[in-house]
């Protein structure tokens, strides 16, 4: 999947244009050379490409791989460090300029796309998949950029990050625009917001699904975590805020958006709170989830409200929350209600989200991606309520992440399952025995 660093019919920018845009000194670099692309990975740059040499974690830095970029024919680098062998446009914070620069190079693709972004601790992936299903059912040529896949008219490829790096994101959006796509569902992580990956992207709507303790290794505390999420709802990014009121963090964000008075607010609740859009009579079974969708009229001047049944093929009461967020965003941005509901009802499943595994075994088996206590509890509450026999959970704590998640994760599993099997799940640089012990401690405390 490729996209020229300019819309069709427009000339590619020059290296001199790029330097002027950055306010950086060009030195002896060829100012008239046309820029053919922008990449952060030294292994994929080619002749005419500009390489973003970005700082990484643990003292690592992209500039350490300058030889690879030189060997592959990179035209120049943008970095906060000199890159040996390459003309380097020096800027104080290359991550902070990467998104805006990539957006400019690709001709502001999100301005031509109805991008709906989804952020929150849990539910992002399911909500983006539900959004894309509703967009497609309404007849829009749609794209999906989630933590699982990047999908468009060309097919799909696996995702490597929840939200792509800035250069990759704008290249993807440019390719979607060039292919005639009209609407895009984009999963937006707190890492992406904190690291400026979505800077330059314009969102038709931004959705907040809720907040629970996670990623505190990056953010430090829940206040900073909310601050990172709130960046998506700034007026320079989003035209509409769709916020779930079903936790204190969503209610705080809604008040913040209201007090600022710059972005229209649409609220949702599947837990009995007063909101613009609500899900009531939520019922989950082993075959899916049903609820009634209630909200305002589906168009200006209708004079009537919405009250209709929705039947999902997705498992778990929490999928009603996700479908509600998706439908509120779709209907608030002009999608036909019948088509939107038909789309979300037609989504057969989301990989790794209470996904059934049938190997001919004489019991139900499911795989769920839940990786924090809140997600584990939501999944297991559904399974507990729909399981007549024993509920056995196999779980573990990934290394290289916030170690404070392990005990609560074990406690959530131990409080709802009959048997908890604790195993390894990618220890990385951590001691796997220590991680297992933390999960076991939580399970025993339940």
Explain this structure to me?
The chain has 446 residues and is α/β, with parallel strands linked by helices. It has 3 domains: 15-94, Udp-n-acetylmuramoylalanyl-d-glutamate--2,6- Diaminopimelate Ligase, Chain: A, domain 1 (3-Layer(aba) Sandwich), CATH 3.40.1390.10; 109-346, UDP-N-acetylmuramoyl-L-alanine:D-glutamate ligase, CATH 3.40.1190; 355-445, Protein-Tyrosine Phosphatase, Chain A (Alpha-Beta Complex). It is built from 14 helices and 19 strands. It has helices at 15-22, 66-71, 94-105, 124-137, 166-178, 190-194, 216-219, 222-230, 248-260, 318-332, 337-346, 373-385, 406-416, 432-445, and strands at 37-39, 49-53, 76-79, 88-90, 114-119, 142-145, 149-152, 155-158, 183-187, 205-208, 241-244, 265-269, 277-284, 289-295, 306-312, 355-356, 366-367, 392-395, 419-422. Strands 8-7-6-9-5-10-11-12-13-14-15 form an 11-stranded mixed beta sheet, sandwiched between helices. It has a 4-stranded parallel beta sheet with strand order 1-2-3-4. Helix 9 links the parallel strand 11 and strand 12. Helix 3 (94-105) packs parallel to helix 5 (166-178). The longest helix has 15 residues, at 318-332. It is globular and about 75 Å long. The chain starts with 14 loop residues before the first helix and ends with a helix. Residues 298-303 have low confidence and may be disordered.
Number of H- or I-type helical stretches: 14
Computed over alpha carbons, the radius of gyration is: 23 Å
CATH topology of the largest domain: UDP-N-acetylmuramoyl-L-alanine:D-glutamate ligase
Runs in which pLDDT lies below 50 for 5 or more consecutive residues are 298-303
Chain-averaged pLDDT: 92
Pathway: Cell wall biogenesis; peptidoglycan biosynthesis
Keywords: Cell cycle, Cell division, Cell shape, Cell wall biogenesis/degradation, Ligase, Peptidoglycan synthesis
GO molecular function: acid-amino acid ligase activity; ATP binding
Subcellular location: Cytoplasm
């Amino acid at each position: 999947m490729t996209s020229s660093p300019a819309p069709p019919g427009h000339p590619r920018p020059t290296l001199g244009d790029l330097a002027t845009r950055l306010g950086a000194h060009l030195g002896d670099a060829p100012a008239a050379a046309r820029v053919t692309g922008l990449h952060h990975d030294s292994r994929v740059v080619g002749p005419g490409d500009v390489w973003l040499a970005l700082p990484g974690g643990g003292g690592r830095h992209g500039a350490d791989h300058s030889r690879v970029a030189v060997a592959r024919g990179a035209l120049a680098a943008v970095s906060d460090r000199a890159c040996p062998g390459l003309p380097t446009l020096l800027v104080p914070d290359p991550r902070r300029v990467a998104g805006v620069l990539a957006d400019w190079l690709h001709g502001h693709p999100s301005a031509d796309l109805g991008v709906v972004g989804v952020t929150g601790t849990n539910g992002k992936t399911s909500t983006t998949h539900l959004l894309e299903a509703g967009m497609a059912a309404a007849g829009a040529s749609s794209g999906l950029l989630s933590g699982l896949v990047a999908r468009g008219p060309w097919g799909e490829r696996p995702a490597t990050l929840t939200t792509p790096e800035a250069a990759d994101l704008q290249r993807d959006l440019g390719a979607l625009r060039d292919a005639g796509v009209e609407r895009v569902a984009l999963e937006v992580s707190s890492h992406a917001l904190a690291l400026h990956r979505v800077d330059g992207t314009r969102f038709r709507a931004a959705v907040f699904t809720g907040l629970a303790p996670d990623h505190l290794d990056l953010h430090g505390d829940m206040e900073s975590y909310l601050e990172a999420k709130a960046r998506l709802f700034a007026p320079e990014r989003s035209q509409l805020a769709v916020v779930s009121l079903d936790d204190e963090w969503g209610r705080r964000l809604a008040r913040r958006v209201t007090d600022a008075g710059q972005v229209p607010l649409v609220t949702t609740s599947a837990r009995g709170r007063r909101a613009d859009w609500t899900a009531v009579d939520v019922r989950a079974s082993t075959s899916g989830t049903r609820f009634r969708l209630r909200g305002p009229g589906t168009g200006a001047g209708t004079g009537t409200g919405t009250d209709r049944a929705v039947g999902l093929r997705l498992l778990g009461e929490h999928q009603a929350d996700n479908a509600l967020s998706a439908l509120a965003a779709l209907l608030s941005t002009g999608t036909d209600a019948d088509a939107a509901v038909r789309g979300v009802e037609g989504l057969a499943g989301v990989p790794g989200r209470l996904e059934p595994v049938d190997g001919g075994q004489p019991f139900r088996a499911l795989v769920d991606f839940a990786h924090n206590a809140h997600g584990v509890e939501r999944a297991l509450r559904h399974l507990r309520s729909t399981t007549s026999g024993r509920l056995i959970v196999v779980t573990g704590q990934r290394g290289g992440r916030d170690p404070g998640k392990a005990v609560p994760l074990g406690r959530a599993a131990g409080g709802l399952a009959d048997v908890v099997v604790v195993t390894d799940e990618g220890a990385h640089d951590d001691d796997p025995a220590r991680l297992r012990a933390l999960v076991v401690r939580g399970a025993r405390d339940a």
